[in-house]
Amino acid sequence: MGRSGDIERKHRITATETHSMPHIGGHMHRIGYATGGAIALAIAALPQAANAADTTVTFGVTAGTLTISAPTAVSLGNGAPGGTITGSFSGGGVTGVTVTDARGLNPAPWTATVSSTDFSPTAGTGAIPAADVNYTPNTATFTGDGTFTAGTAGPLSSGGFTAYSHTGGTGGNTANWIPTLLVNVPVTAHVTTYTGIVTHSVVAS
């Protein structure tokens, strides 16, 4: 090839200078310059900043109520005069007595009491006094914190007595217990069905 051809080749294949640039993201980047022809530029892609959006979320807790539930009807079974009749306080698909405290208080105390009327015969005369029926609260199941305390077993009365109580605790709580009723049937009782009203109540304490 002649001299002009050599000059043309030398013009196209020229030396490339490489210069170091400052560190970017912990890496050395180099730029190459071609003195003849196109300029080649290679820079590593830089990490992009993350996009973020903060939202403040609020909600409120409102006060609920303090309630108590119990079976609407319970059958204790049968027994002879002078004997006893024992049964649990469950019926109609409802098991025992339940206190539900949704007041959201701190502390959240309450007291549940039980009282009863006398037990009147469906036929004839001669009621069986409430005092002839003993009430035992038994062990309860609980949710929530605080202290749950069973009342002392004893005879029913119209005045009532404590069945269960709750002290301390924060927020909501529940208690469920299945009382046992034991009827001391008087020897003077006659053959019929006796009916009375047992009432459970709960109050803030």
Explain what this protein looks like in three dimensions.
Helix content is 5%, strand content 40%. It is built from one helix and 18 strands. The protein has one helix spanning 3-12, and strands spanning 16-20, 30-34, 66-69, 84-88, 90-91, 94-95, 97-105, 110-116, 120-121, 133-136, 140-143, 147-150, 154-155, 161-167, 171-177, 180-184, 194-195, 198-204. A hairpin with a 2-residue loop joins strand 5 (90-91) and strand 6 (94-95). The chain is elongated and about 105 Å long. The termini are far apart.
In short:
This protein has 205 residues and is mainly beta. Helices cover 5% and strands 40% of the residues.
Give the SSE map:
Blueprint: H1 3-12, E1 16-20, E2 30-34, E3 66-69, E4 84-88, E5 90-91, E6 94-95, E7 97-105, E8 110-116, E9 120-121, E10 133-136, E11 140-143, E12 147-150, E13 154-155, E14 161-167, E15 171-177, E16 180-184, E17 194-195, E18 198-204
